[in-house]
Design goal:
Elements (H helix, E strand, L loop, with lengths): L1 H17 L10 H23 L5 H9 L8 H22 L1 H5 L4 H8 L8 H22 L21 H15 L9 H13 L14 H19 L2
Length: about 240
């Protein structure tokens, strides 16, 4: 449900900004950055009391690497995140159905669902996604305020559920404004993959789903999160 809320509001702000004849059409990057930040806030508020507010597979894996989340639960969490992301994207399509019909630009339609490069360069695009997610996970680990006893990470109080949701929202806004202009800053594999799958399945005029690029906003964030967790451990 946390990832559902995240994608419902995040993809929703993309659609509101991009599609024809919406009230917010072409309002720009500031709207998108703050919209996604507030979407994260809402998702964390919903999921925090129950799951530690893991609404991002990269965060889940990063915390598992840091020793603060059991590996046995990782696969189940990721499946739930992906399912929530798909449901959220589908609900946005239902909400904006008429506006999708009046929008002829198939690339713009895809851009409401999933990310893509402003300038296509595989290495640079991959680096951008990895770096943005590194910042996300690394800062989240410090916002959470771990308390380590003789380097024992079992005592670390780490996870989105252990902090207020608002700092993470501002963190996502900062990442979007500073680093998001190159690829649209997925920084969350479920955020990109779930809506991309929905885009591929929907019965509308849409063009292709750009599957050749789709691995970058999945593998890049996972690598960035893993490096962030490793650096965090080294610095303790």
């Amino acid at each position: 449900m946390g990832t559902f809320i995240l994608i419902l509001l995040g993809v929703g702000v993309n659609a509101n900004n991009t599609l024809n004849q919406t009230y917010a059409q072409n309002t720009g990057w500031v709207l998108i950055s703050f919209g996604w930040g507030l979407a994260v806030f809402c998702g964390v508020v919903v999921a925090g009391p129950y799951s530690g507010a893991h609404i991002n597979p990269a965060v889940t894996i990063g915390l598992a690497i840091a020793g603060s989340f059991p590996w046995i639960e990782v696969a189940g969490f990721i499946l739930a995140q992906l399912g929530g992301a798909m449901l959220g994207a589908f609900c946005v399509w239902v909400t904006y159905h008429q506006h999708y019909r009046t929008t002829d630009d198939n690339g713009a339609k895809l851009g409401t669902f999933s990310t893509g490069p402003a300038m296509k360069n595989t290495f640079q695009n991959f680096f951008s996604e990895a770096l943005g997610t590194f910042v996300l996970v690394f800062v989240v680990l410090y916002i959470a305020g771990p308390t380590l006893e003789a380097g024992n990470l079992d005592h670390a109080q780490v996870g989105l559920g252990s902090i207020g949701a608002l700092p993470v929202a501002f963190l996502v806004v900062a990442i979007g404004m500073a680093l998001g202009g190159t690829t649209g800053y997925a920084i969350n594999p479920a955020r990109d993959l779930g809506p991309r799958i929905v885009h591929a399945l929907l019965p509308m005029k849409k063009g292709n789903s750009n599957w050749g690029y789709a691995w970058i906003p999945v593998i890049g964030p996972l690598l960035g999160a893993s490096i962030a967790a490793g650096v965090f451990i080294l610095l303790q």
